[in-house]
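Ticket #4471: structure export looks truncated?
Reporter: QA, pipeline team
Priority: medium

Steps to reproduce: submit the single chain below to the structure queue and open the exported record.
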Amino acid sequence: MERIGLIGAGRAGTALGAALAAAGHPLVGVTARSDASLERAARLLPGVPVLTADEVTDRADVVLVAVPDAVIREVAQMLPLTSAQYVVHLSGAHGLTPLAGLEATPVALHPAMTFPGGPVALDGVMFTATGPDTARALVEPLVKALGAQVQWVADDQRTAYHAGLVHGANHLTTLVTQAVAVLREAGVTDPVATLQPLLATTLDNTLRSGHHALTGPIARGDVDTVAAHLAVLSGRTRSTYAELARATVELADWLEAGQVAGFGEVLNGHRADRTGEAPR
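Actual output as written to the record:
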C-alpha cells in the first residue's frame, strides 16, 4: 500500500484521507494551520501526526495537495518532491498546469461529490483523473479501493468537465431555491415537502432517459400556461424561468412548428421587456 501524505486539512482532503486510511493506505502525516483545520484533522484523522509540509512530503509515496485552487501551484512548487513520488491535487477546474515542472508524476484527481466537513461515503462516486499513462497503475487501484469509480479526461477538457458539474449541481441548488421561494409566496406552507418527491422522481427519470423525461407545459405544447407563468413571476426568477424555458423548447424535439413559434413569441416578448413588468 502506498504511503499517503496530506497537504491541507480542508473538508475534501480530510474526508478523502480518512477514506484512504480506512481502505488500508497508511496516512503518514497531514499539515494543518488554522484552528478549524487542526480540529478537523483531530476528528477525522485520529492518530495521524500533524507535520510540516516538508516532513509530510519526505514520508509519502503519494502527496495529496488538498488546498484551495488559487494556491495549488504555489504550495506544490514548494514541496521537496522526487521523481519516485506522485503529486495529486483534488481540483475539478484545473488540470496539470499547476503541477507543471515538478519532479513527481502529476495527477489531477477530482471526486464528483460534496464534502460538508465530516466523513463521506464514496461508494459509487466517480473520480475524474487527468495525468500521464504511467499514473494509471496508481490511480485506478487507489480509487477502486474506496469503492469508487474512475474515468480519465484530457488535460484540455478539464474546464469543460468542471463546467458540466457546476451547471448540473450548483445551478440545481439555485433553481430549487427559487422554486421554494415561489411556492412560499403562493401560500404553500411546506414547499420542500411539496417539491421533494417530484424533484427526486424527475431527477431519477432524467438521469435514465435524458430529455425524454420532460413533462409539464412545454412538453405538452401549452403556450398559454407558460405565458401565464411569466406574468406572475418577477425579477431574477422570471429571467431564469424564461431562459430555461427556451432551452427546454429546444430539447422538446417532438413539438410542432406552430407550437415552437408560439413559445418563441411568448419568450422573445419576455426578453424584449425592459420595464420590469411582466410581458403582456
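Status: closed, not a bug. The export was complete when the record was re-opened. Leaving a note from the reviewer for reference: The radius of gyration is 24 Å.
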